[in-house]
Amino acid sequence: MTPFLEAIGIDKIYPGGVHANKGIDLSVAHSTVHAVVGENGAGKSTLMKILFGVEQPNAGEIRLEGQPIVLHSPRAAIAAGIGMVFQHFSLVPSFTVAENVVLGVEPRAGLKLDRKKASETVRELAERFRLPVDVDVPVEQLPVGQQQRVEILKALYRDARLLILDEPTAVLAPQEVVELFAAVRSLTSQGRTILFIAHKLPEVLEISDTISVMRAGKMVGTVAAKEATEKSLARMMVGRDVALKINRAAPGIPHTHLCRISDLTVKNDHGLNAVSDVNLVLRTGEIVGIAGVEGNGQSELFDAIGGLRPISGGSVELGTTDITHVSVLERRAAGMANIPEDRIATGSAGGATVAENIVATELTDKRFVRHGLLDLKSIRDHAAKLIEKFSVRVQGPESAIGTLSGGNMQKVVVARELSSEPSLLLVSHPTRGVDLGATEFIWQNIAKARDAGAAVLLTSADLSEILALADRMIVLYRGRIVAAFVNTEEVTPEVLGSYMLGFAEQSAEERNAALA
Amino acid sequence: MNEIIATILSATFVAAVIRTTTPILFASLGGLLSDLVGSLNVALEGIMLIGALTAVIVSAHAPWYIGVLAGLAAGGFLGGVMALFHLRFKADIILVGFAINIIAAGGTVTVLTYATGGDKGTSINIPSKAVPALDLSFLGNIPAIGPFLREVLSGHSYLTWLAAFMVYAIWYFLYRTPEGLRFRAVGEYPPAAEAAGISPNRLRTYGLIASGCLAGLGGAQLAMFSFVGFTRDMTAGRGFIALGAVLLGRRHPIGTMIAAVLFGFFEALSIALPGILKWMPGELIHTIPFVVTVLALMLSSRRRVTA
């Protein structure tokens, strides 16, 4: 039987000289789930963009059901029956689900848009493929998981027979992943083919029929999911054994109270309470993880503690100082450091050099600034030292940070924040979009900071990251703490998930036991 | 004070508000269309001015409706020029818009000089025509409210009725047709439109041309009805007030109309007041529409922040 989609000898060199795909062969069988895994920068995204017509290969051929085709644009790909769901959704927030799905191919009645027919068609489509969603609600009111369904429906409405999903689980809570996988199975059983890019190996093993592994622009191999294990895949991806295992804080060391957050209330951009009456104590030498579906107050909580958002009620004490209303500079002077959620927008200045970014938080330090003038030499030396210590892959301290890959940029941010030897460290999504090798390294360094006595407050969309690092865990739902745990074997993603989605809430005693 | 309230409540004053609103409403609807596709046309002022002069000069040699169409075409052409420079040559829309405003301010005077044979101020010696008024005096036969309706509604320019119809037409286009859906998608989140196979730049070009046409109509109304003939700088900031109306109207045709009427009201007031408040300097009274624009924008953005 001819494969549904074949890519033969795909080669792609970007104008900047990056050789992203080196003679890639890929063969996707009809009505299966085919996963492509690999570290960041392995070339997965480039390959998918080529298959969806966003990028043009320098060499190679694509065949659809045995026929060679040229995909010169996404429009050509859609016409050929290929649809893609990107990580960043392209939905118009104020439009309803139905409007978003039919946009561009609208049913009409004379001059008019036929809204009734649009709603009906989309509703039927949603039922047929087990993608339940309320079609007449504006998408901005839907949780991320349902927005993703709308994206899938968009592709199906355009009659996609092959669906490319770019890291679809990255933004989902565990229960939503279960629902997505149910939809994926119903799609393949109805003759659709799924190409699935991912890096969370347990999920890949669960849903895929076939798994292809890419590393450094090359296809390393393709295996049947039944014959693969997490370990074997990780070794194929990285090229060596990876130990994503972080030791917990050593028991028996007294942890003194360092930071007390009392009745904290924070408003979001719309003036509504994003965080309500949060009480929490952070101790030295311990990592506290905050779990929650995105948009349940984590960002606002971290911004408020970091001084990037005003606090409308309650207080934050660091050591003996009240830092509730002080500036970022004063917070940093009190011993706080912050690895922010968005390394590009808030974590770094893209046009500035690596050295400038590293020194940016130290401009009161006599080592770097004397008589109001920068000491360029010592700044450069300091940056070079950190680049070495954190093995950042960069040409030198004078390179613009914007030219670095995501993982290396994040390493620079981590290096800068840890070099101040903070007593309180805020960490948001430290390894989002960062490859396995760099993840391991960043985790180890956060653990090192903890062992040096820092109190770490961590949040991540990736529950396995929180479970791997945190000593205690807290679940935020609609801005309130609904559960708190000491991290043990019994706490699984499913347990956290049911609290994250608001299905359950702990009693106050249970919570307080883990909060004090 | 009572005299002011009596003036405001009179049928004559309501009719005056409708008259002062018409040019602003045209320009505001133009601004709305350009803003909804994500390239706010800041050249409304200049386009109105050029539209006004074009309409006046052409109407001296052709029927009045050809003059109006010429104003519209001149506006559409300028909208197309903006699209060309902004979308093809990637120039900043604000700079392109201001270039047109500056060209309009100086260029209209130059062209006026040639057209009139030396007059730098007005087109008084060109026999330009006026847009006819629609006579609805039969409304006066309706019992009770008849005379009031006649006073308010009769004797307005054809273009006033066109402007009112355009509010409905644009609303229908935006919220009832597939093309309108695409228009709004481009304005709200261009990547979504692009992913759906829609070219944002093509729609932006249409939006800018349409906004130019509407501003040109506003100019024609100004120089062929509100005043008959062209006077240098006769738009007097109406194009900028229209921009305010777009923002104040929350990017919706009905909201934009309400905002345009609000500004029209204060303009009419600034015309009526000097006769009543004789002690107040006229210059101060004439600043009212602009002060109101600034205050309205401040209040509306404040509401958005705290909302």
Automatic annotation (TrEMBL), chain A:
It holds the Pfam family ABC_tran. Signal peptide: none annotated. GO terms for cellular component: plasma membrane. It is found in: Cell membrane. Keywords: ATP-binding, Cell membrane, Membrane, Nucleotide-binding, Repeat, Sugar transport, Translocase, Transport. Gene3D superfamilies: P-loop containing nucleotide triphosphate hydrolases. It is a peripheral membrane protein. The keyword Cell membrane applies. Residues 5-241, 259-503 form the ABC transporter domain. GO terms for molecular function: ATP binding; ATP hydrolysis activity. InterPro entries: AAA+_ATPase (IPR003593), ABC_carbohydrate_import_ATPase (IPR050107), ABC_transporter-like_ATP-bd (IPR003439), ABC_transporter-like_CS (IPR017871), P-loop_NTPase (IPR027417). It comes from the Bacteria. The keyword Membrane applies. Belongs to the ABC transporter superfamily. This is Simple sugar transport system ATP-binding protein. It comes from Kaistia soli DSM 19436.
UniProtKB/TrEMBL annotation, chain B:
One of its GO terms (cellular component) is plasma membrane. Its main location: membrane. It is found in: Cell membrane. The chain crosses the membrane at residues 6-29, 36-58, 64-87, 94-115, 158-175, 206-228, 257-277, 283-301. Keywords: Cell membrane, Membrane, Sugar transport, Transmembrane, Transmembrane helix, Transport. The keyword Metal-binding does not apply. One of its GO terms (molecular function) is transmembrane transporter activity. The keyword Transport applies. It is a multi-pass membrane protein. It holds the Pfam family BPD_transp_2. This is Simple sugar transport system permease protein. It comes from Kaistia soli DSM 19436.
